[in-house]
Design brief:
Shape: globular
Order of helices and strands: EHEHEEHHHHHHHH
CATH topology of the largest domain: Glutathione S-transferase Yfyf (Class Pi), Chain A, domain 2
Number of domains: 2
Helix content: 40-55%
Structural class: alpha+beta
Number of strands: 4
CATH architecture of the largest domain: Up-down Bundle
Distance between the termini: 26 Å
Strand content: 5-15%
Length: about 210
């Protein structure tokens, strides 16, 4: 397998966590988002949407979209699982993952931020206000969700697809100044996640394309 990604990309970070939890080795190819490499003709042949991550596999075209990639990894390497055991818990884990990946993170995406700055004149203060609207509201909903489902992790006592999404979101929220101090349960779960070797291996600071 070859993973195309960027060291600080939340979506790539999710997939790196899943790969590490499952102990799957892969080749890594950095796609420099700041340099616009995701829009190159060569990369668009890999992912026509021009986003990271993409996962190149032996038996078909490259896979795209982080949630779909993690579900693929679960199918080809069921153990250790990144989904809880019961049907309701599996649905809850997928729901939390989707809330983060589809409802919170896209509003923080660097492409979205650049558009708001260049096309709508957002200054730093306006951007912080924006980020503390939709992304923070969704994270507040996730905080309420995990109050019903969490053990040591988002759903139960083992890391799941939900935690693969939570840790990158907490990292990005801290980076962009989203007010998350009052999300006590999310902080507790995130600390447990970051203490695991798989999450440490996947952390942005430990990627080959991270600045020295």
């Amino acid at each position: 397998m070859k993973l195309f990604g960027y060291w600080r990309s939340s979506a790539t970070y999710r997939v790196r966590i899943a790969l590490a939890l499952k102990g799957i080795d892969y080749e890594y190819e950095a796609v420099d988002l700041l340099a616009g490499a995701q829009r190159s003709d060569a990369y668009l042949k890999t992912n026509p949407l021009g986003l990271v991550p993409a996962l190149e596999i032996d038996d078909g075209p490259a896979l795209v979209q982080s949630l779909a990639i993690m579900e693929y990894l679960e199918e080809i390497r069921p153990e250790p699982s990144i989904l809880p055991g019961g049907a309701a818990d599996r649905a809850a884990a997928r729901a939390i993952a989707a809330m983060i990946a589809c409802e919170a993170q896209p509003f923080m995406n660097i492409g979205t931020q650049n558009y708001l700055k260049t096309e709508h004149g957002f200054d730093d203060a306006a951007m912080v206000k924006w980020l503390n609207h939709a992304p923070r509201d969704t994270m507040a909903a996730v905080e309420a969700m995990v109050a019903r489902t969490a053990g040591d992790f988002c759903v139960g006592d083992a890391p799941s697809i939900a935690d693969c999404c939570l840790a990158p979101q907490m990292f990005a929220a801290a980076r962009f100044g989203v007010e998350i101090a009052d999300f006590k349960r999310l902080h507790e779960i995130n600390e447990r996640c970051l203490a695991l070797p798989a999450f440490e291996k996947a952390h942005p600071k430990n990627q080959p394309d991270a600045p020295a």
